[in-house]
Amino acid sequence: MLEAIKLVGAIAGLLSTAFLIWDRCVRGRPRAEVTVETLGGTREYISIKNPGDSNLLILGVSVHPPIYGVGKDRSAGAAVAEAAKRDWSLLLRAGDTRDLPIFDHRNQKDVSKNQRVRFLIRWRKTSSPWLPQVPVPHWTSTNDIRRIAAATPDRQL
Q1: How much is the average pLDDT of 19-31?
Q2: Secondary structure, 3-state, the chain
Q3: Can you name the residues that pair with 60 across neighbouring β-strands?
Q4: Taking residues 17-31, what's their average pLDDT?
Q5: Which pLDDT tens digit goes with each residue over 87-136?
């Protein structure tokens, strides 16, 4: 009987640990994808969606290797802040999606080369901003971004 109680306790402990890891590392984390807008010229974005029930604080997006930069919005001030490598953050409400512009920092001779790229999204839940969250990686390549842009139809107003 004592062994059965120990077994049930051990199983409950493992399930609690699995739930805690899932809750802190996976639940409510943002999703990311590369999107392209072709109205008035081609413009690449990384689209970040908050699928959860609570608000998220996006602390920034870093790119490795640093051939691209990511801005907070489409404004000229955001482009200057990105070029100066200033930190930024934005609030992403439950269910919202934001398109963050991608700035190409490659020189002319490197534009035709294919490179793997990792966008790393740093974030926190606003319900517990003190609790570090595992950054969300989004892997792609320069060829993938080019193909998405080529496959995106021009939108008409």
Answers
A1: 82
A2: CHHHHHHHHHHHHHHHHHHHHHHHHCCCCCEEEEEEECCCCCEEEEEEECCCCCCEEEEEEEEECCCEEECCCCCHHHHHHHHCCCCCCEEECCCCEEEEEEEECCCHHHCCCCCEEEEEEEEEECCCCCCCCCCEEEEEEHHHHHHHHHHCCCCCC
A3: 122
A4: 83
A5: 788 999 999 999 888 888 887 777 778 889 999 999 998 887 787 888 99
- The count of domains in the chain is 1
- 142: in domain: yes
Q: Is residue 110 part of a domain?
A: yes
Domain that holds residue 69: 29-151
pTM of the model: 0.76
Tokens describing residue 34: 């590369």
Q: What is the CATH number of the domain that holds 83?
A: 2.60.40
Q: Report whether 47 contacts 138 (CB < 8 A).
A: no
Residue 17 in any domain: the answer is: no
User: Does a structural domain hold residue 82?
Assistant: yes
